[in-house]
Amino acid sequence: MSVSLRSALEGVTENRSVEPDRTTAVVTAMLGLDAVWWLLLYGGHVPMPGMQWLMLSAEIPMAAPGAMERAVFHIGTLEAVVGYTVMWGVMMWAMMQPAMTRFAREYTAAYRGSALGAARALVAFLGGYYVVWLGSACVPLLVNAVVPGGVYGLTREYTPFVIGGVLVLTGIYQVSRFKRSLLRTCCASVAPHADGATGAVRTGLHHGVQCVLTCFGVFFLAMVFFGEMNLVWMVALTGVVTIERLPSWGEELAVGTGVVSLVAGLLVLLFQPALPIAFAL
After folding, report:
1. Which of 102, 105, 168, 253 is most exposed, with the fewest beta carbons within 10 Å of its own?
2. What span, in angstroms and rounded, lies between the C-alpha atoms of 266 and 158?
């Protein structure tokens, strides 16, 4: 074997030994960070403004649709809005972290530079990404402000119509070309890059906006009107948005869940069954 060929093979071997270590570290860190978000959320270590009034005076379960938004509007202070924003942000980070693990791994693998540079770029990227999800707290607050009686009042008064209508709208969004085009872009392979901190933050902001739009039907329609603090729905929707990010058949899952949601919504509107929505303690 010639010296040049031997050198080339050794170079390939070195790359193969270094790359899995870098990407494995990223996957491990992402999973560990996700565990932190869930522990913070369900250990009660995030702000939950108005919780005492909600549970004791209003006697509204935390998991009821629009309960947290109702509590924030009851208090009506900037501090309550900030506290809700932090709570919502941690909740979204916990739910989106599994879906982002694959992308974070590819973003790191595509970095052309040292492991330290890749780590800096990934931290900056995630910082921008997290900021977008933190800011998305304005969406449920705005929805609560514009619907008559707020999310809680409207859903409690007209439960089958609201839930059925939300399921139909979510289904339509899931199967729409707009959603599917966003999903294809979101799941695209990451091109080789050497992002500095500023570029990585910009990339994270852009990717965060794409993710918010991709998940709009699931998180800002279904979850808000089903109760965002309902553990069952949180786990189920986390699974949906995670599998949607799989390039091989994620788009098929998005369409499949959309069809199921659409049919379920029509059945609810037609037959108006009793629904397991928590409005009482």
Report:
1. 102
2. 15
